[in-house]
């Protein structure tokens, strides 16, 4: 999944430029835990937010992100 997401370019934006109305966008929240840290993010078709460190906001420059691909990828882990 990291390889898939790495194809997208993002640009950091101010929190006032973040469109908080994501009701019309498909997205997901991801949480990755390692031995030393937890990384959490909300990823939508055209923007994403890192929840760590007071939140950083990003606009997807070359999107939209193919959210359907992510759902299909996750479905492959039914026993996960």
UniProtKB/TrEMBL annotation:
Species the sequence originates in: Oceanobacillus kimchii
Name under which the protein is recorded: Phage protein
Taxonomic lineage: Bacteria, Bacillati, Bacillota, Bacilli, Bacillales
């Amino acid at each position: 999944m990291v390889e898939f997401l790495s194809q997208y370019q993002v640009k950091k934006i101010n929190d006032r430029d973040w469109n908080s109305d994501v009701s019309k966008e498909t997205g997901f929240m991801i949480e990755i835990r390692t031995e030393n840290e937890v990384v959490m993010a909300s990823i939508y078709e055209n923007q994403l937010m890192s929840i760590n460190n007071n939140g950083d906001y990003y606009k997807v420059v070359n999107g939209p992100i193919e959210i359907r691909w992510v759902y299909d990828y996750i479905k492959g882990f039914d026993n996960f």
